[in-house]
Design brief:
The protein is mainly alpha-helical. It is 60% helix and 0% strand.
Length: 121
């Protein structure tokens, strides 16, 4: 599934980013969290703004996935499966929800594709 258009630098960056999923997206250790404890809580206005940006990003992803190749859409589905907790591993609720949400985004994009390219849920 390698893309000849990707440079070595791009491939290395992609690998580093994807490897962060191995530890819940680069979750901080307890020591790292304690050193950053001076960060103030988000205000209500900041939370509303953050939600708005997430909604915008989700809709952009749906648009991109609707026009994406079957290979790109399958990669998005595979990533959703990849981050789901494995049998015997700690079942983190946020990771489970994120995995389902990624799959939902791919299937929601079907509404904007021609019927010949739609995926089956």
């Amino acid at each position: 599934m390698s893309n000849p258009d990707l440079t070595t630098d791009t491939t290395e960056v992609r690998q580093r980013v994807l490897s962060r999923w191995e530890n819940e997206g680069g979750a901080m250790t307890k020591t790292a969290f304690e050193t950053n404890s001076e960060v103030p809580d988000l205000t209500n206005a900041e939370l509303v703004h953050l939600r708005m940006r997430v909604i915008a990003l989700e809709n952009l992803m749906i648009a991109v996935l609707a026009e994406g190749s079957d290979q790109q859409r399958q990669l998005a589905l595979d990533m959703g499966d990849y981050i789901a907790p494995r049998a015997g591993a700690t079942q983190h609720l946020l990771t489970i929800h994120a995995s389902h949400h990624m799959t939902e985004l791919v299937h929601r994009s079907d509404r904007f594709r021609t019927s010949a390219f739609a995926t089956k849920p």
